Amino acid sequence: MAVRPYWRGYLKLSLVTCAVTLSPANTDREKVRFHTLNRKTNDRIRTRYVDSVSGKMVDDNDQARAYAKGEDDYVILEDEDLDSVQLESTRTIDIDEFVEADTIEWVYFDSPYFVVPADEVGEEAFTVIREAMAQSNVVGISRLVLGNRERAVMLQPWGNGIILWTLRFGDEVRDEDEYFDQVDADKPDRDLQTMVEKLIEQRTASWSESMVKDPVQQSLLKIIKSKDKKKPAPKRKKEAEEDIEPQSNVIDLMAALKRSLEGKPEGGKKSKR
Length: 273
What we know:
This protein is an alpha+beta fold. Among the domains are: 7-28 and 85-171, Beta Barrel (Ku70, Chain: A, Domain 2); 180-232 and 251-262, no CATH class. The protein has helices at residues 79-83, 123-136, 177-180, 190-202, 215-228, 250-262, and strands spanning 7-13, 16-24, 65-70, 73-77, 92-94, 97-100, 109-117, 138-146, 149-158, 161-167. The strands form two sheets. Strands 5-1-2-7-10-9-8-6 form an eight-stranded mixed β-sheet. The chain has a two-stranded antiparallel sheet with strand order 3-4. A hairpin with a 2-residue loop joins strand 3 and strand 4. The longest helix is centred in the middle third of the chain and has 14 residues, at 123-136. The two termini are 35 Å apart.
């Protein structure tokens, strides 16, 4: 069942404009959520902003956003200061430029949204923009205010609609070279690699949503149900803790791979080719 649109506005490319809506492509509505209670009274606990020095509660009108220049040295920013650097329109996705599809690294992707026409009047303009991007094999880059925060966004043709991805800013993505440069770049032993490739082939299956089911969610619901009936919650068996020693010996790796190939794969069935 389609949910109520999260955002309504306009998609614009030069002089072509159409009304569109955005709806989150994912949801956490079914996730188990917790509240913090006072164990003695069973009442919910509320969060309050207090002055770190006086300990007194601070009224909403006295709360201000500030930038820390140093220890106990702040610059307070007023609403008009923040408004001066925002987009002129918070209701228009104005496509500024395009880049080739699949050239944006996945680490920049944040949250996906479904973009669809808001009415029949704008459907033709929407379709033209979508199909032109698809034929040119490009994605659109723009900016958008969501949740009172300005975001860089990417628009990608997807079936009959468009997927909008909010993108992380450059300073939010760490440099991969700081981590991967520590990894040995030498080619592995060819025999070992061949065995791993066979192991991968055995465990290759067609994608299914069951691969990303959350077993913890189901376990929590069982515990909640058992507690609601005043029954003791099932206790999880503790596995014996063992010290894991790294095995860097090639002979041990070869033996482990041979045993893996001889046994049945633990994953799904081998995909048909």
